[in-house]
Amino acid sequence: MTSTKKVTNRRPKNNVGGLNFGPTSVAEFLAQFWQQKPLLLRRFVDPGSVNTGLESLLSFAQQDDISSRLIRVRKQDWSMQEGPFDALPSLRTKQWTILLQGMDRSLDQAYALRLAFGFLPHARIDDVMISVASAGGGVGAHLDEYDVFLVQGHGQRRWRWGYQSDHRFQTNKPLKLLERFEPQFEAVLEPGDCLYLPPRWAHEGVALSPCSTWSVGFRAPSRQEFLQYFLLEAAESVSGANPRYQDMRLAKTKQAGRIPIALAEQLKQWAMSFRSEQPLVEQALGRFLSEPAANAWFESPAKSLSKRQWLSKALAFGLALHPASRMVYDNKSVWLNGEILARPCPLLRQLADQRYIHANQLKKSLPENMTNALSNAPTKHFDPVTKRQDARECKKTVEFQPLFDSLFGCYQQGSIRFWSEKHS
Ligand code: SIN
Ligand code: CO
Fold first, then answer.
1. How far is CA 118 from CA 19, 70, 96, 292, 342, in A?
2. C-alpha closest to that of 133 among 186, 207, 61
3. Hey, how many other C-beta atoms are within 10 angstroms of the C-beta on 158?
4. Residue 11: pLDDT over 50
5. Where are the domains of the chain?
6. Contact 158/83 with Cβ under 8 angstroms?
7. pLDDT tens-place string over residues 235-276
8. Residue 6 has what pLDDT?
9. End-to-end CA distance of the chain, in Å?
């Protein structure tokens, strides 16, 4: 086995959104490592940005909106229990770990870490999982189907990893543990360090002291996943006549168990002649990629606001997506949480890219008469004699109104909220 790989970041060349790629530029990382080979990144994040205390992380295991799993090992005897948990072992008891899924939806520091990965498409990011382990704790040697950045929060963890073609798993274990693990690399991660692993690299992390690991996990749909989603939608949206199989003048049979040839032919013909139209596929893929996590939930704001109150607050604070919201767009549509929201426009693209819109950005994109209506100021582009508005401003108003209505609707559902309330 190769000894611990040393990476020193004496002259950092690249820093994106607070992520320190050290001597490797982000462009180099994407060209040479992403989806290809692991990379150890010392001081990848400021340790202060992932320093939520272990006890307060553990308290999330009591919540039923957080999917949690407790894993224990004693002499190769593994056990796994699903949360929520009223009580957990003490961190002084060795060899256990708890995995807390989707923490970016519940913990500001985890959401901020996820936002730092804005140089990668949001459609590829899954969630931030946080594990808390007592000394000796871990989930055993395994491999994941997806890219992952394993960021060390508190304490130290020793990682071993390597590429192997033997992907057989042990049988009768509550976890998918590799039958044979042949690591080629090893390193002890300190707070702020990170190990990037591409899909299907074998790895094992063992806590050297009570510690937390923040895993920024990615997702990549498989053909089966997308087709399952799409074909279900397609079946519901097949329009026009809905012929049903008929067998008038049916002959008497002695083989009642046999599928009638005509019935089989009819079903085959329906299946083989089904061709989906491109717009249907495009709409389905946007819905699929913006579908929120299964246990994500949105709550309407406690205090309801009128449209006018909402707009004036939005102009003061800006708008932000709820951490659980997924928003994506292409050239024709914008989707939010599995629904088409509107046609793309600079404002919505900005919201989807940055996940927030600053109050000033919102002001700039709003038609003048709408902002002035709020402040009772005279509208510059309005001619009081002809009572007509400048044609460009008028067009802007007509275009903005439906967008404004849908954004307000999203606010009422809780998928969009005011920005500064959470982040400034
Ligand atoms: C852990 O945090 O213990 C497990 C993360 C992983 O191996 O993907
Ligand atoms: Co893993």
1. 11, 31, 33, 18, 23
2. 207
3. 15
4. no
5. 5-218, 307-423
6. no
7. 887 777 889 999 999 999 999 999 999 999 999 999 998 888
8. 44
9. 48
Domain 5-218 classification at class level: mainly beta
**Tokens 């074909």 -> residue:** 231
Ligand 1 pocket, CB under 6 A: 97, 131, 138-139, 144, 148, 150, 203, 205, 213, 215
User: Which ligand ends up closest to the CA of 202?
Assistant: 2
Q: What angle do CA 203, 24, 140 make, to 5 degrees?
A: 10
- Report DSSP state, residue 178: B
CA of 148 to the centre of ligand 2 (A): 8
Q: How far is the CA of 144 from the centre of ligand 1 (A)?
A: 9
Q: How many helices (H) and strands (E) does the chain have?
A: 12, 21
CA 215 to ligand 1 centroid distance, Å: 7
**Cα-flanking dihedrals φ and ψ of residue 62, to 5°?**
-85, -20
At residue 2 the predicted structure's pLDDT band, cuts being 50, 70 and 90, is very low
Which residue minimizes the CA distance to atom 3 of ligand 1?
Answer: 138
Phi/psi class of residue 376: alpha, beta or left (left: φ > 0; alpha: ψ in -120 to 50)?
left
Rounded Cα–Cα distance for residues 159 and 144 (Å): 15
Q: With beta carbons less than 8 A apart as the criterion, state whether 334 and 282 touch.
A: no
